[in-house]
Design a protein that fits this description.
heterodimer; A: 112 residues; mainly beta; six-stranded mixed β-sheet; 11 strands; 53% strand; globular; B: 113 residues; seven-stranded mixed β-sheet
């Protein structure tokens, strides 16, 4: 059974600080990793994808992947109140596997 | 504008009734997916399709059916066999099944009345 684990939160971070969101996955053969942002009542929006070990930066967002530890994280620098949302980690295993496996999400609150 | 359109946004179903949720994309994507989201839960895969006229069951396919007669369209039918259909239903598409980013429609919120 493929599993993707996230701390449900809420994670409360002061405005302007760095928010750190973590995700672990069970299938060592996982190939692709994604972070989605979901506002309450809305659909998920893709914000980052990462495929190889290391860091990937896009604006205020940095995704970090460590396949040996089966761990992927998302850092949000200079956090803004508009970053308050639920962040979903998604993993693609490949090898004929079906679609993405999602974690339950971390609820992030940025305090003004 | 390219994107994924789901309709309706809200849907009410009576006990024992079948309902069909629409999903259309103009992104020229080959792969399409249906997910279900319950409050406080992650997304669970219902069905997915890699190409026209082919689809596969996901983790929770019981009580649901799909068709893929056109590349652009992947409707989901929630049948009376689905005992707990109240949920947020999300359609997504990607260029292909492997290693590609999936993009979502705005979702359909289904409620049993």
């Amino acid at each position: 059974q493929k599993e993707v684990e996230q701390n449900s939160g809420p994670l409360s971070v002061p405005e302007g600080a760095i928010a750190s969101l973590n995700c672990t996955y069970s299938d060592r053969g996982s190939q692709s990793f994604f972070w989605y942002r979901q506002y309450s009542g809305k659909s998920p929006e893709l914000i980052m994808s990462i495929y190889s070990n290391g860091d990937k930066e896009d604006g205020r967002f940095t995704a970090q992947l460590n396949k040996a530890s089966q761990y992927v994280s998302l850092l949000i620098r200079d956090s803004q109140p508009s970053d308050s949302a639920t962040y979903l980690c998604a993993v693609y295993t490949g090898g004929g596997a079906d679609g993405l496996t999602f974690g339950k999400g971390t609820h992030l609150i940025i305090q003004p | 504008d390219g994107g994924i359109t789901q309709s309706p946004k809200y849907l009410f179903r009576k006990e024992g009734q079948n309902v069909t949720l629409s999903c259309e994309q103009n992104l020229n994507h080959d792969a399409m997916y249906w997910y279900r989201q319950d409050p406080g839960q992650g997304l669970r895969l219902i069905y997915y399709s890699q190409i026209v006229n082919d689809f596969q069951k996901g983790d929770i396919a019981e009580g649901y059916s799909v068709s893929r007669e056109k590349k652009e369209s992947f409707p989901l039918t929630v049948t009376s066999a689905q005992k707990n259909p109240t949920a947020f239903y999300l359609c997504a598409s990607s260029i292909g099944l492997a290693n590609t980013e999936a993009f979502f429609g705005q979702g359909t919120r289904l409620t049993v009345v």
